[in-house]
Specification:
mainly alpha, Na/sul_symport_CS, transmembrane, sodium:sulfate symporter activity, sodium, Solute carrier family 13 member 1
Length: 597
C-alpha cells in the first residue's frame, strides 16, 4: 500500500518520465524530421491533456526540442512566440481593465435585466442576454465571476420574498409573527453577502479550469447544508437554472467576436499565418458569420434550460395585464436597488463607453467586404493595418486620458493638483493580462511552424487524403464532435492549438475549402458544457453549491447538441456565400500527390 501511495504522490513526475521514454523509439528508429516533430507533438499533446506540467510551461517545449532535433533554430522558434495576436490581446485587455475598474460592466448587466422584467423566465433570459453581451468583450471567466454574485443575491431575494408572503398570510390568520422565518431571512441575507465577497472577477482569457479548483473547494467547504437553503423543490430548480444560464451564456457570448474568447484569437492568427493571401477573416466578417449562430444557440439553450428545470409555461410567460406577484416585486426592487447603488453614470464610465464604441466601429469598418473600409486610405501598404492596430491605438488612449486629478495639501493648507491619474495604470493592466495564455498561444504557433518546417503537416495531409471519399457534411460533423468531446477534458486553448495544425492539412488533402472544416471546429471548441472542470465559468457557478455534476451533464448535453446542430446548419446556409465555401480557393496551396518518406 505504501508503494501505491508513493505512485499517487509522484504520479505527475512518473507520467512525464514514462511519456518521454515510451515515445522515444519514434525518433530513434525512424530517424526523420517528420518523426522527430511527431515525437514533440505527441509529448506536448499528452502534457496538455493531462496537465502534468502547467499549460504555459508545456508550451515552451518547442523552444527546447526543435533546436535539439535540428528542425528549427532557437532564433526561429523564439520569433513564433510573439505575433500580431499578442498585440491585439494587449489592446483588448486595456479595454477590459477599464470596464471592470469603473464598474461599467455591472451597470450594463443590471440595466439589461431591468429592461426584460422580473418574470422568472424573462429574468433568466435577461441575465443570459446581459452575460452574453459582456462576454463578447470581456473574458468568459471574468464575466461569469462578475454576474454570478448578482444572480445569487437575486435568487435569495426571490426565495425570501416568497417566504415573506407566506408569513404575512400566516400572520393574517393567526395574528402572530413567524420568528423562525425572520431568522431564516437573516441567514439568507448573510449567505448572499458572503457570496458577494467570495466571488471576485478573474482576469484574463485563460480557460485552464485548474485555476478555479482551489477556490471551488473553499466555496464547497464553506457552504451550508443544501437542505437548509431551499424551501421547496421549485426554489432549488430556480437556483440551478440561474447558475447554468450564467455559465452557458458567458461561453456562448464569447463566440460572437474574434476577441470574445482565446480560441477565436488562436484560430484567426493561425489561419492568417497559414493562408496570408486570404484576407477574409477579420473582426467584421467573423461577427457577421457567428452572431446569428450565437443568437440561435442562446435562445434555444434558454428554452431547453427553462423546460428542463422549471417547465415551459407559455401562460405564465405571456400574461398580459396581470399584476406582478410579491416575489416578482421583491426581485425587481432588489435589482433596482443594486442599480441605484451605482449612482449616476460617471465621467470615467462615459469615456470608457465611448472608447469601447469607437474600437468596435473601427474594427467593423476596417475592411467590411461589401464596401471599402478605412484601410483603403493606406492603399500603398495593403494588409499592413490589422485589427491589432485598432486595439493598440485605443489601448494607448486608456493610459493617456485623465480619470481624476491627484491633489496634495501645501504647508499653508491649500489643496493643489500636482498630477493626474489615467483611466488605467500599468499595475492594473498587469493584473488583468493573461500572460499564461500569451505563452500558450505562442507555443502553439511554434508547434505549427515546426510541423511545416519538418514536413509533418504535408505527411499528415497525404495520409488523410482517403477521407476525401466521405461526404463533406460527414467530415465536418466528425471533426466537430471530436473537438466537442476533447474540449470537455482538455482546456479550450490547448485543444484548438493542438488540432489546427492537423485539420488544416486535412482540408487541403481532400481538396476542401479549409474554412469548411476549421470554422465549425473552432466554434465547437467552446462547447465545454458538460463538466464543472471543463472551463472556468462552469467551475465558478458549480462552486455555489446549487448544482450536482449530473445536473450539469444532463443539461449540458442538450446545449452541446443544440450548439453542434446550429453550427452545422450555419455552415450550409448563410456562411457558405460569405466565404464561397463550395469552391477550393486560390489562396490555399494546390494539391500535391507527393508522399514524404
Amino acid at each position: 500500500m505504501k508503494f501505491f501511495s508513493y505512485i499517487l504522490v509522484y504520479r505527475r513526475l512518473l507520467l512525464i518520465v514514462f511519456t518521454l521514454l515510451i515515445l522515444l523509439p519514434l525518433p530513434l528508429i525512424l530517424r526523420s524530421k517528420e518523426a522527430e516533430c511527431a515525437y514533440t507533438l505527441f509529448v506536448i499533446a499528452i502534457f496538455w491533456l493531462t496537465e502534468a506540467l502547467p499549460l504555459s510551461i508545456t508550451a515552451l517545449l518547442p523552444g527546447l526540442m526543435f533546436p535539439m532535433f535540428g528542425i528549427m533554430t532557437s532564433k526561429e522558434v523564439a520569433s513564433a512566440y510573439f505575433k500580431d495576436f499578442h498585440l491585439l490581446l494587449i489592446g483588448v485587455i486595456c479595454l477590459a481593465t477599464s470596464i471592470e475598474k469603473w464598474n461599467l460592466h455591472k451597470r450594463i448587466a443590471l440595466r439589461m435585466v431591468m429592461m426584460v422584467g422580473v418574470n422568472p423566465a424573462w429574468l433568466s433570459l435577461g441575465f443570459m442576454s446581459s452575460t452574453a453581451f459582456l462576454s463578447m468583450w470581456l473574458s468568459n471567466t471574468s464575466t461569469a465571476a462578475m454576474v454570478m454574485p448578482i444572480v445569487e443575491a437575486v435568487a435569495q431575494q426571490v426565495i425570501s420574498a416568497e417566504a415573506e408572503v407566506e408569513a404575512t398570510q400566516m400572520t393574517y390568520f393567526s395574528g402572530s409573527t413567524n420568528q423562525a422565518l425572520e431568522i431564516d431571512e437573516s441567514i439568507n441575507g448573510q449567505e448572499a453577502n458572503e457570496r458577494k465577497e467570495k466571488t471576485k472577477p478573474v482576469p484574463g482569457y485563460s480557460n485552464d479550469a485548474g485555476k478555479i479548483s482551489s477556490k471551488m473547494e473553499l466555496e464547497k467547504n464553506s457552504g451550508t447544508n443544501s437542505g437548509n437553503k431551499y424551501r421547496t423543490k421549485k426554489d432549488h430548480m430556480m437556483c440551478k437554472l440561474m447558475c447554468l444560464c450564467i455559465a452557458y451564456s458567458s461561453t456562448i457570448g464569447g463566440l460572437t467576436t474574434i476577441t470574445g474568447t482565446s480560441t477565436n484569437l488562436i484560430f484567426a492568427e493561425h489561419f492568417n499565418m497559414r493562408y496570408p493571401d486570404c484576407q477574409c477573416i477579420n473582426f467584421g466578417s467573423w461577427f457577421i458569420m457567428s452572431f446569428p449562430a450565437a443568437i440561435v444557440i442562446l435562445l434555444l439553450s434558454w428554452i431547453w434550460l427553462q423546460w428542463f428545470f422549471l417547465g415551459f409555461n407559455f401562460k405564465e410567460m405571456f400574461q398580459c395585464g396581470k399584476p406582478p406577484t410579491a416575489k416578482q416585486k421583491a426581485c425587481a426592487a432588489f435589482i433596482k436597488q443594486e442599480y441605484q447603488k451605482l449612482g449616476p453614470i460617471r465621467y470615467q464610465e462615459i469615456v470608457t463607453l465611448v472608447l469601447f464604441i469607437v474600437m468596435a466601429l473601427l474594427w467593423f469598418s476596417r475592411d467590411p467586404g461589401f464596401v471599402s473600409g478605412w484601410s483603403a486610405l493606406f492603399s500603398e501598404y495593403p494588409g499592413f493595418a490589422t485589427d491589432s492596430t485598432v486595439a493598440l491605438l485605443i489601448g494607448l488612449l486608456f493610459f493617456l486620458i485623465p480619470a481624476k486629478r491627484l491633489t496634495k495639501t501645501t504647508p499653508t493648507g491649500e489643496t493643489v493638483a500636482f498630477d493626474y491619474s489615467p483611466l488605467i495604470t500599468w499595475k492594473e493592466f498587469q493584473s488583468f493580462m493573461p500572460w499564461d495564455i500569451a505563452i500558450l498561444v505562442g507555443g502553439g504557433f511554434a508547434l505549427a511552424d515546426g510541423c511545416e518546417e519538418s514536413g509533418l503537416s504535408k505527411w499528415i495531409g497525404n495520409k488523410l487524403s482517403p477521407l476525401g471519399s466521405l461526404p463533406v457534411w460527414l467530415i465536418i460533423l466528425i471533426s466537430s464532435l471530436l473537438v466537442t468531446s476533447l474540449t470537455e477534458v482538455a482546456s479550450n486553448p490547448a485543444t484548438i492549438t493542438l488540432l489546427l495544425p492537423i485539420l488544416s492539412p486535412l482540408a487541403e488533402a481532400i481538396h476542401v475549402n479549409p474554412l469548411y472544416i476549421l470554422l465549425p471546429s473552432t466554434l465547437c471548441t467552446s462547447f465545454a458544457f458538460l463538466l464543472p472542470v471543463a472551463n472556468p465559468p462552469n467551475a465558478i457557478v458549480f462552486s455555489y453549491g446549487h448544482l450536482k455534476v449530473m445536473d450539469m451533464v444532463k443539461a449540458g448535453l442538450g446545449v452541446n447538441i443544440v450548439g453542434v446542430a446550429v453550427v452545422m446548419l450555419g455552415m450550409f446556409t448563410w456562411i457558405v456565400p460569405m466565404f464561397d465555401l463550395h469552391t477550393y480557393p486560390s489562396w490555399a496551396p494546390p494539391i500535391s500527390n507527393e508522399t514524404t518518406p
